[in-house]
Amino acid sequence: MFKVITARLHPPKPSSLRLDGLTVLLVGASTGIGLEAAKKLATKGPAKLIVTARDASKASKTKALIEEHLSATSTPQSSIPTIIPLVVELTSPKSMYAFARDLAQATDHLDHAILSAGILLGSYSQVSETGYETSLQVNAISPMLMSLLIMPLLLASPRVHNESVADRPHLTIVSSGGAWLVKKSSLSPYVDFDHPLRELSKKENFPPGMMGGQWHYSRTKLMCEYGKRHLAMLPSLNDAKGQPKVLVASVCPGAVNSELSRHSANSGVLGAMARVVNGTVARTPEQGANIYISSLNLGVEGRGEMWTDDAISKDARPFIASDELKRLGDNVWGEVKEFAAKVDEMHGSGVVKRLLA
């Protein structure tokens, strides 16, 4: 709570990182921190900046807003990137595979990628296409599937051959320090399930009370953290020395006045609390976006870790130290792999299966 109250006093520092000539993807760029991050990325000299929104109208508007920002900041014409707007809906594997095909048409490689989309719901909701609870799908499962779908393009970057891991491709998954607020005792009922995400998606397991949506949001981010740690260590990402050709990490921008809780903004107490925090102690989206940019320069020490407040978080340790919670993390990853393999059979061409082999 202290971190939330003092968030505005110690925002992430702006990054001096340059991206000259690179191809960068930002998923979830139409509002809030994602939009501010897209604006920052565009001023750093990339050759291509690929941005996404949930529909074509929002994607086109996002491109226009970035172009307006470039004009307002007098960015030299030689440094202005080609901005490519694409569409993806993260509740739909079908949409994600269509996006992957569009992305492959737009570029033959990615040098960096940031997955920024997220959602906080005030009440229970289910995705009809997958059967998973909506926020669990968007915050935990879909980021893992999206990571696998774009990984071949990251591995195709010429930067995978750079000596320093800090200079290699990065995949940044936007998470939340709220993951570490989950009571470890509340996870015990799910430890021995082979499909813990299915159990967490049951309506009867949605946390009750006025803060139920917030507590569930924290759980979804913890599940994302479990998946990310396994994803980062995939053998298929290693070079001959066992170093990552693609550095996978997560970031937490801290408490930010964004549209994350837009779906619960009118849901009684939770919405009222979100409005109070946003209007008083939260960081600005522009401040929160700094952590996205600086994550693209992490070295091997950041592999599988969370980058927050310009440092690697130590808060994950209690959630991976015990045999019980390690087993939960393993089961979460097992279910993610099973889900990804299943949808890849329906919509894909075997790329996911090869990465997971």
TrEMBL record:
Query: Record's Pfam families?
Result: adh_short
Organism (species): Fusarium floridanum
Name the chain's protein.
Answer: Uncharacterized protein
The record's annotation in InterPro entries points to:
NAD(P)-bd_dom_sf, SDR_fam
Keywords for this protein: Oxidoreductase
Superkingdom field: Eukaryota
Q: Name one GO molecular function term.
A: oxidoreductase activity
